[in-house]
Amino acid sequence: MGDAKQQDDPVLKTKAVLENIAARKSVRKYLKKEVEEEKITAMLKAGMAAPSGMDRRPWEFVVVTDRAALDSMAAGLPYAKMLTQAPMAIVVCGDSTRSSYWYVDCSAVTQNVLLAAEALGLGAVWTAAYPYEDRIGIVRKYTNMPEQIVPLCIIPVGYPDGPQKAKDKYDESKIHRNKF
After folding, report:
1. Are the beta carbons of 165 and 25 closer than 8 angstroms?
2. pLDDT digits 0-9 by tens, 142-172
3. Is the distance from CB of 107 to CB of 152 less than 8 angstroms?
4. Taking CA 48 as the corner, what is the angle to CA 96 and CA 163, rounded to the nearest 5 degrees?
């Protein structure tokens, strides 16, 4: 009954969304537990709910569960070593022929995927491929993506190994009113 009430109460709904945003953290250690297919689909649906300039939706996704591919990408990507522990990763890509601002739309997609992972009790972290040609090449090599598809990032995903704490990043000194 409490869940039904929360779904109907805009204040509770808003609170839950804001708490999820504040709770999101970068998780780099994972349990040896597979991520259920319905959770993968939920993250992808959340990603595709992102805003898109002129509704171009230039995003594409590669869901990587192949252990050899994850380990190989971990070996070649300097800031994605946690792929060796992650049971899966989502590569967020953009079709550069659909939009010259594909990376902006795909950044919004990535944030949605990260927030969905948090809401689903999963851990995830954003690791960059774009704009680094060497990293892009490594991701292309292990995902076989066509030339017009550019990997923005690789999101390792899994069940967190141990408690994680979100950082409070609110900084009032970054806020300017009316003028800088």
Report:
1. yes
2. 999 999 999 999 999 999 999 889 999 999 9
3. yes
4. 115
CA angle 11, 40, 135 (to 5 degrees): 110
User: Would you say 89 and 70 are in contact if contact means Cβ atoms under 8 Å apart?
Assistant: yes
Buried b (16+ CB within 10 A) or exposed e, 119-128: bbebbbbbbb
Cα 121 to the center of its chain, rounded Å: 14
Q: Say if residues 141 and 134 touch (Cβ distance below 8 Å).
A: no
For the entire predicted model, the pTM comes to: 0.94
